[in-house]
Amino acid sequence: MDDIERKRATTDSFGSVAASYLDSDVHRDGADLELLASWCEDATRGLDIACGAGHTAGVLAETVPTVIAADATPAMVETATDAFPISGAVADGERLPFADGTFDAVTCRIAAHHFPNPRAFVDEVARVLAPGGVVAFEDNIVPEDDELAAFYNRFERLRDSTHGEAYSVARWQDWFRDAGLTIEESVTMRKDLDYESWAERTNPDESAREELDELVRGSKAEVVYDVTIEDGAVTDFSNEKVLIRAVK
Asked: What structural domains does the chain harbor?
């Protein structure tokens, strides 16, 4: 599947689950969201890339006068603008329809693992960011160990066929620096997830769900996801994310 086909499949997939993302505890609150928003509180014009159901853009709008929520999936943009006092734009995160230096804050939260070309995304962020502007970025990350990283991406693709690839902290930092951005803060944190709701959110087929349930009980999942099993049932787990604050 080439990049265009992947993007089309991702758009189709997320269009059918926009409402469930609006109600998702993982996306609508958390210390990670609060930290990202705090990095942008002095901005006047913000852009949230791959906005999903609009939670990040909605929190930004509490302190940033103008916020645009952009997503390649029209249903997500509609959901976001219906739920929050923000503007919307249907846009590819790797080819943004905005002029150079338009925004003094750009956010992207828990979405970049869907992008076929993450370096193009980072370059676009740097392009539309005004001098002195801030990037507040967050995404799932893989361990530095190649075998565990491969397991992570295999596991995620079983649950969500639109998952492209998650990368290490070092890889993301390199891409930001290569785009001419200065990293001022980089932190990692784990986010607790309810296994059942996480597994079902993207409606995996029966065979994929069975394989997920088998893999999540294995030794690699224990290391990567810190799985909790109670009375023989997987109840919750956590994954690790990096949050990067960078300036132009």
From this structure: 3-144+162-192+241-247 (3.40.50.150)
